[in-house]
Amino acid sequence: MHTIARSRYDLVAMTLHWVIAVMLIFMVFFGGDLMRGGTDVSAERKVFLASLHVSFGTIILLLSVFRLAWRLINPPPPLPATMARWEVALGKATHLAFYAMMTGMPVTGWLSLPSHVARHPYYAETSIVGLILTPLAPDLGLPAGRLHSLGAKLGMVLIGLHVLAALKHQFFDRNGLLRRMSPL
């Protein structure tokens, strides 16, 4: 039996991509502001904002693990044959970096929670989606907060590269690569 190769991702992969993308953009660019809250903000408000930050991070982690599992079970459509080897290699490296960021950022954030609680005890009341008190991570002596901050900066670079690459393929190469992840 002859099968026709898919040219687009399936609906599950597309939905996960765009939901995670919106959440990542929000967290990378505004997540730190949520966690800090400002000096004129009450402790209750800071706990609410920190809980929102932790909730988004937890959801991103869970969706990313599901997305990775889905991708392993449902391989992506083939890349255009016109793509250069370096583009394919860079694309694969970028995707690996995204998965590392989408799973590593929530983990380093969680690992940095004890240092936040030590400086601001009210952060011990941070919850995940208002239902589960965020468990305090063990203090492993790692610079988790710095790693989390570095991850956010790298995330901004990754998002920028990803968007620029998609635009390059759409408007300069005109190879239809962007259509693979477009629900339209």
Q: End-to-end span in angstroms?
A: 30 Å
Helix fraction by DSSP (H/I, runs of at least 4): 55-70%
By DSSP (H or I, 4+ residues per run), the number of helices equals 4
What structural class is derived from the secondary structure elements?
A: mainly alpha
Average pLDDT across residues?
Answer: 90
Query: Could you spell the SSE succession in H and E letters?
Result: HHHEEH
How many runs of DSSP E, i.e. beta strands?
2
Q: What's the overall geometry?
A: elongated
Strand content is under 5%
Strand order of the largest sheet: 1-2
Q: Give me the Rg, rounded.
A: 19 Å
Count of separate structural domains: 1
Quaternary structure: single chain
Give the uncertain stretches in residue-range form: none
Largest sheet: 2 strands, antiparallel
